[in-house]
Amino acid sequence: MKKNLFLIILSFSTLISTGQVTQVLQFLADSSMAHASLSMLILDSDSDKIVAQYDPERSLPQASILKLITTAVALEKLGPDHKFRTTILYKGKIKHGQLDGDLIIRGGGDPALGSENFTEIYNAFIDKWIEDIRKAGIRKIKGRVITDDSYFDYEPVPSGWVWDDIGNYYGAGAYGLSVYDNTLKIHYRTGEKGSLPEVTAIVPGTSGINLISYLTASGASDNGYIYLAPYSTKGWVSGTIPENKEDFILKGSLPDPPIFIARQLTERLNTLQIKVKGESATFRLSPANDQSEPVIISETYSPALSEIIDVLNHKSVNLYAEHLIKELGKIYKNNGTTSSGAVVIKEFLDSIGINSDGMFLEDGSGLSSLDAVNAVSMVRLLHYMEKKSKSFNYYYNSLPEPGKEGTLKNVFRDPVFENRLRAKSGSLTRVRSYAGYLKTISGRNMIFCIIVNNYNGSSAGVIKSMENILKEIVEKY
């Protein structure tokens, strides 16, 4: 009954209604909002009554709060215990310690293989592979190490990602076999202003990438950008990084993780006197012709989906979200593409009574400038998760808290929000958004979504206004 009442209220609500929330009126009157768009809805989830709204059905680019949709549907459709599997196999025959065939690393869509976020789970995973290769009796490989990266499609970067993002760590694409968060770390030693930084190390070391540097040292901020397309081996670095640093790390995206891990395993095997004759490859570059059944040597399992989502939402990891939307497409449409995953998400939303017509999903993370959602759809989903989902505790606990680790660490620092707010933030150029759960001083439970586009002035001012709106809700209701 409550759910139906909520839907009726939203269906017949006026587009502009701020209730008694004076901070909303002040925000709208601010000069920074003169040319801006706002989609906002704040709901009392105990009574299913709207507290405040402004143009709640207006679809706008929303940035990273889109992850709330991707992770909710992943939990509901895949389950919190879902795991990804990476497999080491071989094809051919083993005779007198020699494998007359290929060693295969088969990706299973694991977004976190080798990630620093899960060091205990993936501790020395390549050593474990090599140990199992030895146990299989392999001392020499006549063929090659090849990665089966066909689990997902070969289009790692979704539509609408801008060139400035793609080469940097937060713009890493999703591959059938991703590794080390698909992140390339370039270590620099910098000198005085205007000097050329010196590269001291590249981690991981086996990259096969040639980067021309137009980078200089200046100031104290990181304004360095890596321009490197997926599957490419050449690119450049430009901008500025902090001066007079003994070890400054600029993080970029690994352009071809499948070939990288094949080369890394080959090098490790050769170092340990398990000689590999052939050149490393991937199924994308060299499709398998041998249709014989491979033999499994070793398996590596990911953390549970609930653990991955906890990191994803706390740290706003775009890569993990892109893997999840492809995994939804793979499992439910037998097609590991972003577009198939988007269809699964929309079908799920429609099945629980959320009209997805005003939702435009070009990726799973919100990095695409072509995405758009509205406050009504977001609040309805958050409402569903709170009231209906068996995975709500995992979902709720994955959302950052103000002043603590995660993306809310430096915002909502007013003591009134302590232990009262769980939310996801979103930010792109001229886009700021927040969505999540809020508890008032009187004990009321609120669900909110605020999306602002094309404001003037500073982002800090817009964020402060959004904080003021939620503070008034906490104190007043």
Plain-language structure description:
The chain has 2 domains: 2-81 and 306-476, DD-peptidase/beta-lactamase superfamily (Beta-lactamase, 3-Layer(aba) Sandwich), CATH 3.40.710; 83-303, D-tyrosyl-trna(Tyr) Deacylase, Chain: A (3-Layer(bba) Sandwich). The protein is 30% helix and 25% strand. It is built from 12 helices and 19 strands. It has helices spanning 2-12, 22-29, 66-78, 125-135, 163-166, 257-271, 305-315, 318-333, 338-351, 375-388, 392-397, 459-476, and strands at residues 16-17, 37-44, 49-54, 85-95, 98-106, 140-141, 145-148, 183-189, 198-203, 210-217, 223-227, 234-241, 248-253, 275-276, 281-282, 295-301, 421-428, 431-439, 445-453. Strands 4, 5, 6, 7, 14, 15 and 16 form a 7-stranded mixed beta sheet that branches. Helix 3 runs antiparallel to helix 7 (305-315), helix 3 (66-78) crosses helix 8 and helix 8 (318-333) crosses helix 9 (338-351).
Q: What characteristics describe this protein?
A:
D-tyrosyl-trna(Tyr) Deacylase, Chain: A; alpha/beta; Beta-lactamase; 477 residues; seven-stranded mixed sheet; 12 helices; 2 domains; six-stranded antiparallel sheet; disordered N terminus
Tally of alpha and pi helices: 12
> What is the annotated CATH architecture of the largest domain?
3-Layer(aba) Sandwich
Low-confidence stretches: 1-5, 7-15
Class per helix and strand makeup: alpha/beta
Basic shape: globular
CATH fold-type name of the largest domain: Beta-lactamase
Q: Report how far the terminal alpha carbons are from each other.
A: 23 Å
Fraction of residues in H or I helices: 25-40%
Characterize the biggest β-sheet: 7 strands, mixed
CATH class type of the largest domain:
Alpha Beta
Count of strand segments: 19
